[in-house]
Amino acid sequence: MSDPQFDVRYRLTPPERVSPGVRKRSRAVAHQQTVLQQDLTHRPAGMDWFEEALARPAGDWDGPVVGVYCGMVPPELVRAAGARPVRLDCGNAALVPTGDEVFSGEICPLAKSSLAMLLDPESVARRAAALVLPASCDAKTKLGEVLADFAPTFTLALPREQDAGRHAAAMAEELDRLAGFLAEHLPQRPKRRDLLREIERSREQTRLVRALQAARIDAPGAVSIRDFHLIVQAALAGADPEEWERRTRAVLAGAEGYTENRARLRPRLILTGAPMLWPNFKALNLIEESGADIVADTLCSGAQSLFDPVVVDERGWTALLRALALRYVFASPCPCFVSQATRMSRVLDLVRDARAVGVVNYGLRLCQLFDFEAYRLQRVLKEHRIPFLNLRTDYSLEDTEQLRVRLEAFLETVEDAP
Ligand code: SF4
Fold first, then answer.
1. 333: burial class by Cβ within 10 Å (0-12, 13-18, 19+)?
2. Which residues does a 6 A CB cutoff place in the pocket of ligand 1?
3. How confident is the model over 136-193, as pLDDT tens digits?
4. What are the strands, taking DSSP E only, across 7-115?
5. Closest CA to 168 of 329, 35, 312, 281
6. Hey, which end of the chain has fewer CB within 10 Å, N or C?
7. Separation CA 249–CA 220 (nearest Å)
8. What span, in angstroms and rounded, lies between the C-alpha atoms of 297 and 294?
9. How many C-beta neighbours within 10 Å does residue 346 have?
10. 334 alpha carbon to ligand 1 midpoint, in Å?
11. DSSP E strands: which ranges in 32-142?
12. Tell me, what's the pLDDT at 239?
């Protein structure tokens, strides 16, 4: 790399730690979640394709793979460079202890399990020709230099304020730098024509996800939130985009034609907070098992990742990069920015539009950003007389029953709310 972000003098030989036993346990954890979802009362046809897409990220794709560690890395740029983007943020509880052996200290389970994926020579992460992550939270900012021991890595600098007027030009320049980095490690430099084509593809994906969310708002029983997130995360895991569109269109047609046999009386909730990555759907399982429906969410691993279309006003290269910056950075509800107004407004809009009666905030232990934001979120929702539950947990299943009790108590207050 001509402009290395990390001093090559201190490069380390990457360790290999994932044993066959750990690999087996991690597959068992994913299988357990798959089986749980197979038992859902109503499931769209064809969900096995999405399950398979998550079990085998990037599937049969034999071209280059780029590992991305956040929803703020534009996948269009990676695809325009001839590679398949695969989101490598990991939600597998069985991998956390392995990550813990390398990263001692108070580091979030997402960072630990994501690193553990790289320690496994059989993982898709080791196929990556390049890795990209943003300098968002402390964990992601510092993870980059560790990842660079495994594969060429680019840490995307972000502004601290979501003030597009002030920072959009600089962010477009930073995306241009990312395009240059990708060109060095992939078959082709992303070109304007390819980028436009990939933006169009993403716009179709967002159209489908929006329509699916709208169908779920009308009839939450049509598609469980767990299956909805499975569908979204299959796209993030590098599933074949055309096949994903075809399969999602079929799910959407089923959802739009779905009618409940009787009135659905389950409380309608909005979910916000930290990413929940397959197979860590513990909180989703609990909320549905406790008798509530999540009708919309702001998670960067959920609807939010494919919700806002990239808006193209001008078709020049810099204008396209600016459009990506506006979509992926300046409209992001991520808590890494100085103001939490974007997420706050998104939550309030969703409560209104999806006719929800409460909000659940999912806090991942050791993620201070979401913990900080919970304070103001709770106060603002209280002013709007919207019931709020802050569900803090980690990847382990030890607190499942305790969380269930808290959820059930919360749902009673929601049902009693005026
Ligand atoms: S919470 Fe923010 S930094 Fe973390 S993965 Fe999501 S968008 Fe990226």
1. buried
2. 70-72, 89, 136-137, 140, 275, 300, 332, 334, 336
3. 999 999 999 999 999 999 999 999 999 999 999 999 999 999 999 999 999 899 999 9
4. 65-68, 84-87
5. 329
6. C
7. 17
8. 7
9. 20
10. 6
11. 65-68, 84-87, 128-134
12. 97
Distance between Cα 329 and ligand 1 center (Å): 10
DSSP state, 22? H
Indicate the top mutation candidate among 69, 113, 140 to test ligand 1's pocket, ranked by most ligand atoms within 8 A of CB.
140
Closest-CA residue, ligand 1 atom 3, reads 136
For 240-281, how does the pLDDT look when each residue is reduced to its tens digit (9 = 90+)? 999 999 999 999 999 999 998 888 889 999 999 999 999 999
Question: Which two three-digit tokens encode residue 137?
Answer: 């939270």
What is the rounded radius of gyration, in angstroms, for the C-alpha atoms of the chain?
Answer: 21
- The letter for the amino acid at 364 is L
Q: Return d(Cα 44, Cα 48) in angstroms, integer.
A: 10
**How far is the C-alpha of 397 from the C-alpha of 403, rounded, in Å?**
10
Structure tokens at 151: 């594969």
Angle between helices 138-147 and 109-118 (to 10 degrees): 10
Structure token pair of residue 86: 């695969």
Rounded Cα gap, residues 144 and 137, in angstroms? 12
Residue 117's H or E segment, with its range, is helix 109-118
Question: How far out from the chain centre does Cα 276 lie?
Answer: 7
Q: In this structure, are strands 153-156 and 84-87 parallel, antiparallel, or unpaired?
A: unpaired
Per-residue tokens: 148: 């660079």
Altogether, the residues listed in the chain come to a count of 418
AA identity, residue 385: R
